[in-house]
């Protein structure tokens, strides 16, 4: 069981390592091994934050979990997701596994050849293409500028060697079949085949686009076979019952049919006002703080553009806002309002001012009540529109 399998647990070699492990999954679950808690964290963070990285530290080597727990947490997370049996949850989970994996791939590819070593195993583009049977379908683009051409590789699964010229080229050609399978016109007009340079049955893509297509391949691999039925006699479902119930509660708490759809900062709950004021003082928000704020703003019906404008004079950068709000506003059926008051209290974000945890269980509900009770509500968006009109 090596660190690379733990880092990329959807690889075929990782699956073999799990199959060959001395301990069985039912035994691990029955013993409530660390891999079980890590699996819960994996799914929870996927559903709430779009990542499966451990909160205890970025991979590799910094996670509180060892390589075995990391690796085994993946099949257990798949079991948890299967038990949740929710289409949107499966999609979120697969997307988060893929996003996290590709973040690691990008870091691996940036690792200087000389720094590649057995102690920091890295994956190269060749390895990734081979993993998804794309080795023959993707080639460096011969028309790319001289000096940036080379093998598609940048290392091996063992990470001991760099590949070919050592630097990856900027452009590639991918056979049209795999291109159509891995990309979607929904990603934007530039992905439509009619807008692509097509020659000899292959489509030209940039390196960033190739990585986006590979992310789709990872996502499809993770989603494959989910949800699956568990053998009734192994007792896994029973042993995971409370963790599944917690995750299910989390999901249902996060499904709101109708956001208030009015932006009245004066009526925001104190937790959110505090976060906004902190960001306005140019202080950095922690990941949990920024997620809570973004989820609240999206939850009250703001678009990513509106959130960017609303946070223009704060420490939050537009790119980060867009990434987070677009994840939160996806159109795949699940909306993600902010965590509950209880969770925010655990993160130190809520100080339960005026004991209003008694009033609502989460900031959105609290805000909804305040909006409903207010005599007059001024929508921040109206003021923005009139000032924009005044500028014309
Ligand atoms: S009780 Fe809830 S709404 Fe009120 S400040 Fe705390 S987290 Fe925010």
UniProtKB/TrEMBL annotation:
Residues 143-169 are annotated as: Disordered. Keywords: 4Fe-4S, DNA replication, Iron, Iron-sulfur, Metal-binding, Primosome. InterPro entries: DNA_primase_C, DNA_primase_lsu_PriL. Its cofactor is [4Fe-4S] cluster. GO terms for biological process: DNA replication, synthesis of primer. GO terms for molecular function: 4 iron, 4 sulfur cluster binding; DNA-directed RNA polymerase activity; metal ion binding. It comes from the Archaea. The keyword Chaperone does not apply. Residues 263-378 form the DNA primase large subunit C-terminal domain. Residues 148-166 have a biased composition (Gly residues). GO terms for cellular component: primosome complex. Heterodimer of a small subunit (PriS) and a large subunit (PriL). Belongs to the eukaryotic-type primase large subunit family. Regulatory subunit of DNA primase, an RNA polymerase that catalyzes the synthesis of short RNA molecules used as primers for DNA polymerase during DNA replication. Stabilizes and modulates the activity of the small subunit, increasing the rate of DNA synthesis, and conferring RNA synthesis capability. The DNA polymerase activity may enable DNA primase to also catalyze primer extension after primer synthesis. May also play a role in DNA repair. This is DNA primase large subunit PriL. It comes from Halorubrum xinjiangense.
């Amino acid at each position: 069981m090596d660190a690379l399998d733990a880092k990329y647990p959807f690889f075929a070699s990782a699956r073999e390592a799990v199959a060959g492990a001395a301990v069985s999954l039912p035994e691990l679950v029955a013993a409530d091994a660390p891999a079980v808690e890590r699996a819960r964290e994996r799914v929870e963070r996927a559903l709430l934050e779009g990542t499966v990285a451990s909160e205890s530290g970025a991979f590799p080597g910094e996670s509180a979990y060892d390589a075995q727990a990391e690796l085994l947490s993946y099949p257990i997370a798949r079991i948890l997701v299967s038990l949740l049996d929710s289409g949107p949850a499966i999609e979120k989970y697969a997307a988060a596994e893929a996003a996290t994996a590709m973040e690691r791939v990008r870091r691996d590819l940036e690792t200087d050849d000389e720094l590649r070593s057995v102690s920091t195993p890295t994956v190269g583009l060749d390895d990734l293409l081979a993993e998804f049977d794309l080795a023959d379908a993707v080639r460096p683009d011969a028309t790319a500028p001289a000096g940036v051409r080379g093998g598609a590789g940048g290392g091996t699964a063992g990470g001991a060697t760099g590949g070919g010229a050592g630097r990856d080229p900027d452009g590639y050609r991918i056979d049209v079949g795999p291109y159509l399978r891995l990309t979607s016109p929904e990603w934007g007009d530039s992905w439509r085949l009619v807008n692509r340079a097509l020659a000899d049955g292959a489509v030209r893509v940039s390196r960033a686009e190739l990585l986006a297509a590979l992310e789709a391949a990872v996502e499809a691999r993770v989603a494959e076979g989910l949800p699956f039925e568990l053998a009734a006699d192994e007792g896994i479902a029973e042993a995971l019952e409370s963790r599944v119930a917690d995750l299910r509660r989390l999901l249902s708490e996060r499904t709101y049919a109708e956001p208030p759809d009015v932006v009245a900062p004066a009526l925001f709950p104190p937790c959110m006002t505090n976060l906004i004021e902190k960001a306005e003082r140019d202080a950095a928000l922690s990941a949990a703080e920024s997620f809570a704020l973004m989820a609240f703003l999206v939850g009250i019906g703001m678009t990513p553009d509106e959130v960017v404008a609303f946070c223009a004079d704060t420490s939050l950068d537009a790119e980060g806002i867009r990434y987070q709000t677009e994840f939160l506003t996806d159109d795949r059926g699940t909306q993600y309002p902010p965590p509950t008051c209880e969770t925010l209290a655990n993160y130190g974000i809520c100080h339960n001012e005026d004991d209003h945890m008694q009033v609502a269980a989460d900031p959105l509900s609290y805000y909804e009540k305040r909006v409903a009770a207010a005599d007059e509500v001024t929508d921040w968006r109206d003021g923005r529109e009139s000032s924009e009109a005044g500028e014309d």
